Amino acid sequence: MDLVKTVLAIIPIVWLILSLGVFHIRGDLACLIGFALSLILSIVGFHFSFSNSITAGIDGIIMALWPIIYVIISALFIYNISRKSGGMDTIMSMLTSITKDMRFLVLILAWGLGGFLEAIAGFGTAVAIPASILIMLGMNPIKAAVVCLVANTAPTAFGAVGLPVTTLAKVTGLGVTQLGYLIAIQLFVLMMLVPFVLVMMTEGKGLKSFKGKGVLVCTLVAGLTFAVPEIFITKYLGPELPSIVGSLVCLLFLVIIIRGYSKKDEAGSSSNEKEEKAQISTAEKIKAWVPFILVFCFIIFTSSMFPAIHNALASVKTSFHFYNGANAKPVDIDWLSSPGTLILLSSIIGGAIQGLSFKEMFSVLTSTIKQLVKTIITVCSIVALSKVMGYSGMIDVIAVSLVTLTGAFYPVISPIIGVLGIFITGSDTSANVLFGELQVQAAHALKVSPYWLAAANMVGATAGKMLSPQNIAIATGATGLEGKEGVILKKALPHCAWYTAVLCIIVFVAGKMLSYL
C-alpha cells in the first residue's frame, strides 16, 4: 500500500465530504472544485498526461449528458406535464379517497405513490409530493418529512426508469441484468422491513401500532407486492421497469385490500363524501395515467422481450472513443433505445391526450431544464471526476488500500461506501459513478463476485438517501420546514443506522453463502 498515493487519491473525496457535509457549499460549486482537484492530482501525483486528464474529463461529461441528464430531464418533464395538465392532481385524489386511517395513507402515499414517483421521475418528487399530501391530511410536518425520507430508500435503486443500475453497469462494465437481479435480491429483506417501520413511525406505539383491522396484513402486503415483482422483473426484463411495476402492483393490492376493510365505514359515510369520491369519471382517471401507461408500454415493447424491435432501435447509435489512453472504454449514444427518448415520447403523446398544446409542452420542457441547471452541473462534474479518478489509477489505489486495511471483511463496509457516495453527491446514480469501479476493483483483489459488491454499493446508496443533504433540503422545502434540516437529519439518522446495519449483514453473510454455491 502506497500511503502517499492513497492520501492524494482520497483528497477529492474528502473535499466532497467536507464541502457538502460540513461547510454546506452548493453542490454544483463543490463538485466543480472536486473535478478540478482530480485533474490536478491525476497529473501531479499520478503522472497522468494533461491531454489524457482533459479527455477523460470530457468523456465523463459526455456520459453525464447522455444518458444520465437526458433521462433526468425526461423523467422530470413527464411529471411536470402531469402537473400542468392536472393529471397528477387526479392521481392524488384517487389515492387519498380510499381511507382516513393515517397508517394506511402512509403505506399508499409514502410507500406506494412515493415508489411510483421515484420510478418514473426521481429528483425528490417521491419525498416532496407524498409529504405535502400527508401534511394536508393532518400529519405533523416533521413526521411527514422523516416518514417520506425513510420510505424513499429501498425503491430508489430502480428509480428514474432504472437509471442508477444502468449507469452502474456502464461504469463498471458489468452485465446490467445480472447486476439488477442481485440488487433486487439484496433489497428483498429491506423492502419487507421498511413498511413495518413506516407504520410504527406513523402511529408511534411500537408493535401496538399494528392493532386494528387489516393493518398488519396491509403492511405485509405492501412489502411483498413491491419486492416480489421487482425480483422477477429484474431477472427477466432488466432494471428499467422493476420499481414501476412493483409500485403499481403494490398500490393495486393496497387499494383493493384497504377498500375491503373499509366497506363498513363507507356504508356509513355521508352523502357529501360519497359525491366527492364519485366526482372523478373513469375517463378522467385513465387520462390522468396515460403518460405513465405509455412509458410502461414503450419500455416493455422495446425491451429484449421483443428482439426485433429492441435490436432495430439499439442499432441506431453512435459509438466513439474520446479518451484514447489505457483501458479506454467507448462512448455509446443510443439515440432511440434510451429510456430518455421513450419517456420524452410518452410525455409528448400523453400531454397531447391530456389537452396540452405543443407550445405549452415546450414551455414545460424549457422550465424543466432551467429547474435542473445546477443538477446538470453537479452530475457532469461528478461523472467527470469519477472518470479522471478511474482512468488515472486513483480509484485502484483507494481500492487496494481499503482491501489491505480490511482484508476479508471488506464486504462488511462495502455498503457503507455506497452510503458515503450518496451523502456526498445526493444521487444514487452519481454515487454509483463515483464508487462503482472502486467496488469492482476491490472485488477482484479479494477474488469475490464483482457483481455482488457493485450491487452492495447501489443498495448502500439507498440507505444513505435519507441522510442526503439534497434530499433533506427537498423534504424541508416541500413541508415548509426550511431551517429545520438539522432536526430532520437527527431523526432520520437512527433509521439509516439500522437499515445500513441490516444491509451490511446481508452483504457479508449472503455473500459468503453464495461463494460456496
TrEMBL record:
InterPro entries: Lactate_perm
Locations listed in the record: Cell membrane
The keyword Transmembrane appears for this protein: yes
Membrane topology: Multi-pass membrane protein
Record key words, sorted: Cell membrane, Membrane, Transmembrane, Transmembrane helix, Transport
Record-annotated membrane-spanning stretches: 6-23, 30-50, 56-79, 91-113, 144-167, 179-202, 214-237, 243-261, 289-313, 333-352, 372-391, 397-424, 496-514
Any one Gene Ontology molecular-function term assigned to this protein's record: lactate transmembrane transporter activity
One GO cellular component term: plasma membrane
NCBIfam families from the UniProt entry: lctP
Family the UniProt entry places it in: Belongs to the lactate permease family.
PANTHER family (alphabetical): GLYCOLATE PERMEASE GLCA-RELATED, L-LACTATE PERMEASE
Its biological purpose: Uptake of L-lactate across the membrane. Can also transport D-lactate and glycolate.
Full protein name: L-lactate permease
Originating organism: Lactobacillus helsingborgensis
Taxonomic lineage: Bacteria, Bacillati, Bacillota, Bacilli, Lactobacillales
